[in-house]
Amino acid sequence: MFVSPVRAQAGADSVRVTVFVLDNLGNGLKNEKVTLKADNDNLDIKLIQELTDETGKAIFDLSSNTKGQFEIKSEVREVPLKQILKVTFD
User: Fold this and answer.
1) Rounded to whole angstroms, how far apart are CA atoms 52 and 87?
2) Greatest extent of the chain over all pairs of C-alpha atoms, in Å
3) Do residues 18 and 58 lie in contact, with contact meaning Cβ atoms separated by under 8 Å?
4) What are the phi and psi torsion angles at 81 (to 5°)?
5) Which pLDDT score, from 0 to 100, does residue 50 have?
6) HSE of 7, CA atoms in CB hemisphere, 13 A
7) Which residue of 7, 19, 69, 74 is surrounded by the most CB atoms within 10 Å?
8) 35-50: per-residue pLDDT in tens?
9) ω into residue 80 within 30 of 0, thus cis?
10) In angstroms, rounded to a whole number, what is the distance separating the alpha carbons of residues 63 and 27?
11) Handedness of CA 83, 66, 9, 62 (dihedral sign)
């Protein structure tokens, strides 16, 4: 799971989160539904590509009108992925 950029302007900018869902051999899993969850209701999550493509990639855009740092978690098939991201809106 990747986020770019990790800092953005509250009320003006968005950040892109890309999640890769891979099998044990590192191959992308297609048509897997990815869910993002934030630790705060002040973060808006826009679904760009909720189902993974042939490379296992899902895409989301995040924005907030509230300043602060947010923790982002993801899950596939209701199983949480281990990686946790942090993004800051100034």
Assistant:
1) 22
2) 41
3) yes
4) -80, 150
5) 95
6) 1
7) 19
8) 999 998 999 999 999 9
9) no
10) 30
11) positive
* In contact, 45 and 3? CB cutoff 8 Å: no
**How far is 74 from 37, CA to CA, in rounded Å?**
6
pTM score over 0.70: yes
Q: How many residues make up the chain in this entry?
A: 90
When computed from its CA atoms, the radius of gyration of the chain, rounded to whole angstroms, is 13
Q: What is the pLDDT along the chain (90 residues), one digit of tens a residue?
A: 999 999 999 999 999 999 999 999 999 999 999 999 999 899 999 999 999 999 999 999 999 999 999 999 999 999 999 999 999 999
Domains of the chain: 2-83 (2.60.40.10)
Pairing of the two strands 7-8 and 43-49: unpaired
